[in-house]
Amino acid sequence: MQGEGGGEREGVTAVPTLETARLYLRPFTLADAPLVQEMAGDVRVSATTLNIPHPYPEGLAREWIGTHAASAAEGRVYVFAIERKADRALLGAIATTITRQHARAEIGYWLGFSHWNQGYTTEAARRVVAFGFEELGLNRIQATYWPRNPASGRVMEKAGLIYEGTLRGYLLRKGSFEDTAIHALLRADWEKLSVHADSR
């Protein structure tokens, strides 16, 4: 991916552990699979995502976790477990998917239902945005959500991403076309904002 000055920035070949005031963002391990299965299997969680199926198949969590190391080694996707510092509880996941050619990434996330509306996703998203600009040398970070899930849009806004528009009928999910809103932040925007100062 392009770093500052247009050069390639290499070296992040594994999922690192990042830190915020209340959270650790760390690599998943196979020990997390049973809880991932339980949380992602909740229809209230899968209903707000594109790629989490419902019902959630047995063994899928282990299979998914097993892909993370190779994806990070190739610099394609970095998937973080969201863990609460206070009790080391696993809360959910956040990922950044890289398009190297354009120095761009898209972030996506899900949180176990019992942990909603406590600011955890915003806190994690701010830190992953900082990781993208500081460690991966990205120029643009974006995220999408369905307007029927406005809470996800608020997370993006609080993380500093700027609303750019709504793509009508953009995604096909379970036989229905979904309007999809997109938010993004450019490196130039991020450097002007104070949001990244609060990301650690």
Entry keywords:
200 residues; alpha+beta; Aminopeptidase; eight-stranded mixed sheet; 8 strands; 30% strand; protein-N-terminal-alanine acetyltransferase activity; Acetyltransferase, GNAT family; Acyl_CoA_acyltransferase; transferase
Explain what you see.
Residues 1-8 have low confidence and may be disordered. An eight-stranded mixed sheet has the order 1-2-3-4-5-6-8-7, with helices on both faces. It is 27% helix and 30% strand. The radius of gyration is 16 Å and the shape is globular. It starts with 17 loop residues before the first strand and ends in an 8-residue tail after the last helix. It has 200 residues and is α+β, with helices and mostly antiparallel strands. Strand 5, helix 5 (120-134) and strand 6 (140-145) form a beta-alpha-beta unit. The longest helix has 15 residues, at 120-134. It has one domain (4-143): Aminopeptidase, CATH 3.40.630.30.
